[in-house]
Amino acid sequence: MSTAQIKSTAVEAVMEFSNNFKDFGSDMPCVMGIDEAGRGPVLGPMVYACAVTLLNNENMLVKMGVDDSKVLTETKREEIFERLKGDNISEAFGYACRSVSAQMISASMLARTKCSLNKLSHDCATELLKLAVDNNINVVEVYVDTVGPKGSYQAMLNKKFPDMRITVSEKADAKFPIVSAASIVAKVKRDRALKNWVFPERAVSVPPNGYGSGYPGDPNTKNFLLKAIDQVFGYPNLVRFSWKTTEVLLHEKAVKCKWRDPENASGSTITSFFKPCSNEKNYSSVKNQFFIDRCLSNISKCSDF
């Protein structure tokens, strides 16, 4: 079973799916599980995956050794993933995954209008369910590992997909075999992406022991973050700039930046830019510093040039 891929840019999310994903199940009722890998690491992408099989067919997954990816060794995860991809079960199992790069995570979380990691996660799950609908898969049951409060998460998904029976649960990857399968797909895809990463930046200093698992507590990851920092440009785009670990190291090791107009972290309302004006007083307008710096003046007619 080979895979297809769309949206392969560095900043956009990358969607990948098995070739049997389209029209999977031939309109027979299916069950889907959704899980992620890579929410916590400071390096690499976050990968969301969905796994799909025919309804009441989850015993097949259990017999194959499917379990929560966190309790399986890397070797065992790879072995099970390759078996799940096998042509001999192509009519019984399919998957899709959405990979969100570290660069996209950073850009979203540090944007002027910030997008939280929870919101990114919810969007990934929604996109995977939409992908199933668009590919004519008759999904009747869905099990999702929760991110944030499960009540509001489930209500949001129920509103978007009212024809599906959706269950959002803590530790769903340990409770439901179909979610366990999704967790294996997500974990294998993330591990491979990190292991096979090619730096687009030049002269990135990678220690002999590599950059580790990407988790902030990993000694190899810590060492990489210390060695790879550039005093002006910070880090290569493998690193999530929005993580506290990165923020602290940039503050300690990189050149300090002083911004002309630091933004108020709490935000400002549009009304804060206006002052009440009494009709009895005559206020003259104050030229913006932008125009002063560039020696720009107002003109009222062409002869003012």
TrEMBL record:
- Cofactor(s) recorded in Swiss-Prot or TrEMBL: Mn(2+); Mg(2+)
Supply the EC number(s). 3.1.26.4
The record's listing under PROSITE patterns reads: RNASE_H_2
Reaction equation(s) it catalyzes: Endonucleolytic cleavage to 5'-phosphomonoester
Q: Which Gene3D superfamilies match?
A: Ribonuclease H-like superfamily/Ribonuclease H, Ribonuclease hii. Domain 2
The terms under GO molecular function for this entry are: metal ion binding; RNA binding; RNA-DNA hybrid ribonuclease activity
Under InterPro entries, the record lists:
RNase_H2_suA (IPR004649), RNase_HII/HIII (IPR001352), RNase_HII/HIII_dom (IPR024567), RNase_HII_hlx-loop-hlx_cap_dom (IPR023160), RNaseH-like_sf (IPR012337), RNaseH_sf (IPR036397)
Q: Which GO terms describe its biological process?
A: DNA replication, removal of RNA primer; mismatch repair
Sequence ranges assigned to domain RNase H type-2 in this UniProt record: 29-255
This protein's UniProt keywords: Endonuclease, Hydrolase, Metal-binding, Nuclease
Residues given in the record as a divalent metal cation binding sites:
35-36, 145
- Give the cofactor binding note: Manganese or magnesium. Binds 1 divalent metal ion per monomer in the absence of substrate. May bind a second metal ion after substrate binding.
Cellular component terms (Gene Ontology): ribonuclease H2 complex
Q: Which family, according to the similarity comment?
A: Belongs to the RNase HII family. Eukaryotic subfamily.
Its annotated function is as follows:
Endonuclease that specifically degrades the RNA of RNA-DNA hybrids. Catalytic subunit of RNase HII, an endonuclease that specifically degrades the RNA of RNA:DNA hybrids. Participates in DNA replication, possibly by mediating the removal of lagging-strand Okazaki fragment RNA primers during DNA replication. Mediates the excision of single ribonucleotides from DNA:RNA duplexes.
Q: Which PANTHER family does this entry report, sorted A to Z?
A: RIBONUCLEASE H2 SUBUNIT A
Q: What is this protein called?
A: Ribonuclease
Query: Which organism is the protein's source?
Result: Cercopithifilaria johnstoni
